Amino acid sequence: MRNITLLLICVLFSAISIAVPTSGFYATEASATAEIAGLGRIECVRLIFKPNSPDYADEMPTYSHYLVLYLGEPVIIDRIDGHTITIQVQDDLVTVFYHSGANAYLYKKYKIYDNTLFLLEEGNAST
User: Fold this and answer.
1) pTM more than 0.85
2) Do 42 and 70 touch, CB atoms closer than 8 A?
């Protein structure tokens, strides 16, 4: 389901960029960042759509944060539905901790393999 969501976001990005070539998405300042030795920088950012239309002058942020790996060009790895995000890098594992509503403190753990990250597990970080 997560992969389908990310695919739809990519299709939406390309559809919007085709329909309105001077508009586009850009990332906000990172809420969390970390360096992965030998790979590059990873950040959690929100995406903002900036329309090029007098009718819609306001920028529109996404609700979620996105985990982005910078390998020259930015690559969206996953969506993070939460706030107060921290990233831990240990050997070949990346763990993202975040708060998600009420008292939920969650995590997503990724394995570094072949210049990308693969989701290993996710769950409640407070237990």
Assistant:
1) no
2) yes
